[in-house]
Amino acid sequence: MSKTSSVEKAYELAKERYAEIGVNTDKVMTALKKIPISLHCWQGDDVGGFESTAGLTGGGIQATGNYPGKARTADELRADLDVVYGMLPGKHRLNLHAIYLEAAKRVERTDIEPKHFANWVDWAKGKLHGLDFNPTYFSHPKAADGFTLSHPDQGIRKFWIQHGIACRKIGESFGKKLGTTCVTNFWIPDGYKDITVDKKAPRDRLVKSLDAIFADKISPKHNLDAVEGKLFGIGAESYTVGSHDFYLGYAISRGVLLTLDAGHYHPTEVISTKLTAVLSFAKELLLHVSRPVRWDSDHVVILDDELYAITQEIVRNDYTNRIHIGLDYFDASINRVAAWVIGARNMIKALLAALLEPADRLRKYELSGDFTSRLALLEEHKTLPFGAVWDYYCLQAGVPVGAEWLAKVKDYEAKVLSKR
Ligand code: RNT
Ligand code: ZN
């Protein structure tokens, strides 16, 4: 039997099994096609960007590993991304950082403009990718002491406010040019390494800086702003100005999006449990799906319990229009293209698994107090032939089925990446 016909046959059988529990797999695949994932550009070059050759410095984040073949130019990064998107069923977005600009001469962060991202926009237009954006508040001399928007020095704060304003304009231009809303996400590293006496003043300054950045109204059709909190960073272990609680309050009071990064909480705290809580009050969320291993390590996203839990929460509560899904990890210890593909395919797979759930039935059991049936069905559901639906979904989309993609990435590595 050919691979194609065995995938089709397995799908027909799987379709019957899901129909038994009231799930229509064809409808599920149609729904899945409509959910874009925003791929993070920074997996391709260890968060280096093209502003200088220094690579990632400061910010309390770190890409570890020295696997050969990282992208050195925007053209190389786009070529790598084309390979990645070719392995993913569905149409997906790209999440850019300000340091991925293209300019003949160094442009200061306060002065960046849409024109510095023209090649990205042309590429995105041609390939039908939406674009998202991030100001870069690290890898810069003015961020070297670990403070940016909450810096005690007014001049430095002003510099970073200007950067934020410039970035929102770039986000707006993406939205306008591509006809799909750009989410511009603000994350800053500000914090202290050791016991902090005045935890209030930096937060007061951060509120003011953010308010100044967001003062100009931009149509939400073109650009949405998001703020991302975290618990700690390397060198900022004791105090983070932009903590979760800080940004939860900020986002809700100002009507901007809150970003939840899976690696930004205490080790046993998960973001999946927060979605319904935050969306009781906030309009929309941005997710940075990541995998923390003992710390905010940004490992490649795998199909683990938390990934399933995140997608179940999104699907069960019909949040696909209120939650923007982005990935955020950077592993430099394995083939970077493969790292992208593994994480992104897992994200889509987990969404598929969640869509295949007999949610109405489970809800009825819960409401009627039949917790026995709830648990029984949840457990039985885990071993239904979800892989057969996934394979068929890939086949239909014209992308590699199963581990077929790996040979293609190895081939690309031999022909392109290893020559860098
Ligand atoms: C850092 C944040 C932030 C970055 C990117 C590169 O802890 O997660 O989102 O990873 O901006
Ligand atoms: Zn993040």
Q: What would your notes on this structure say?
A:
The chain is an alpha/beta fold and 420 residues long. It is built from 14 helices and ten strands. The chain has one domain (24-355): TIM Barrel, CATH 3.20.20. Helix content is 43%, strand content 10%. Strands 3-2-1-10-9-8-6-4 form an eight-stranded parallel sheet. A two-stranded antiparallel sheet has the order 5-7. Strand 9, helix 9 (305-316) and strand 10 (323-327) form a beta-alpha-beta unit. Helix 5 runs parallel beside helix 6. The longest helix has 25 residues, at 154-178. The chain is globular. The structure holds L-rhamnitol and zinc ion (ZN). Residues 187, 228, 261, 288, 328 line the site of zinc ion.
So, CATH architecture? Alpha-Beta Barrel
Number of domains: 1
Residue windows where pLDDT falls under 50 for at least 5 positions? none
Characterize the biggest β-sheet.
8 strands, parallel
Multimer state? single chain
What topology, given as strand order, has the largest sheet?
3-2-1-10-9-8-6-4
Instruction: Give the termini distance in whole angstroms.
Output: 40 Å
Query: CATH homologous superfamily - what is it?
Result: Divalent-metal-dependent TIM barrel enzymes
SSE order, one letter for each helix or strand: HHEHEHEHEEHEEHEHEHEHHHHH
Please give the structural blueprint.
Blueprint: H1 3-20, H2 25-33, E1 37-40, H3 74-85, E2 93-97, H4 118-127, E3 131-134, H5 154-178, E4 182-186, E5 191-192, H6 200-213, E6 223-228, E7 239-240, H7 244-254, E8 257-261, H8 275-278, E9 285-289, H9 305-316, E10 323-327, H10 336-355, H11 359-367, H12 371-381, H13 386-397, H14 404-415
Parallel strand pairs: 1-2, 1-10, 2-3, 4-6, 6-8, 8-9, 9-10
Antiparallel strand pairs: 5-7
Helix pairs in contact: 1-13, 2-10, 3-10, 5-6, 9-10, 11-12
The site of L-rhamnitol has 11 residues, from loops.
